[in-house]
Amino acid sequence: MKEQIKQIRERFKNYIINNNIKSVIIGVSGGLDSAVNAALLHPLCKELQIPLIGRYIHIESNKECEFNTAQSIGLAFCDSFKYVDLTNNWNNFPTENPDSKIRKGNIKARMRMMYLRDLAHIYSGIMIDNINYTEYNLGFFTIADGGDYSPLFYYWKTEVYQIAKELQKE
């Protein structure tokens, strides 16, 4: 996995330089993929002297343990990390079928995406997509919801676990 980590970082560095990116925005969920992305990108953002801006975006149903993990990740790897609560926005969002769990999940994902996308605009940056290849193949994503750059897109979830283990040695 050392070689894969090196390749991920080299591609990211080239993308940042070639596109004159000024900041990197990442949603930190408390899950594996956002944690691995933060750990992967942190040293490159430092090297390139651009901020890695992380946000944990709470909407009603998030668990406290998710926030605690996200906060540890954000404080360890992000130059700026904040907790954002969009529950009031969520509760005031008009919907014609409030009982549809799938629709509600899609709306939550899009609210988070809009918030992160706005940050990317404010800070002349890009939004990181935390999807991996397994999630993509299972359809576990919201269409037109992705970020600008997906470091883990070509890696199966099992490989993301291996990358995480290798990053722990750094």
What's this entry about, in short?
It is built from 7 helices and 4 strands; from the N terminus they run H-E-H-E-H-E-H-H-E-H-H.
Secondary structure elements and their pairing?
Blueprint: H1 2-18, E1 23-27, H2 32-48, E2 52-58, H3 64-77, E3 80-85, H4 87-91, H5 101-122, E4 125-127, H6 133-138, H7 157-167
Parallel strand pairs: 1-2, 1-4, 2-3
Helix pairs in contact: 1-2, 2-3, 2-7
Notable traits:
single chain, 170 residues, four-stranded parallel beta sheet, globular, alpha/beta, 4 strands
Q: Roughly how much helix do the residues carry, as a percent range?
A: 40-55%
Provide a count of the helices: 7
Radius of gyration: 16 Å
- Molecular shape: globular
Poorly predicted parts:
none
Strand line-up in the sheet with most strands: 3-2-1-4
What is the terminal-to-terminal distance? 12 Å
Biggest sheet details: 4 strands, parallel
Question: What is the number of beta strands?
Answer: 4
Overall pLDDT, averaged?
A: 90
SSE order, one letter for each helix or strand: HEHEHEHHEHH
Structural class: alpha/beta
Strand-residue proportion: 5-15%
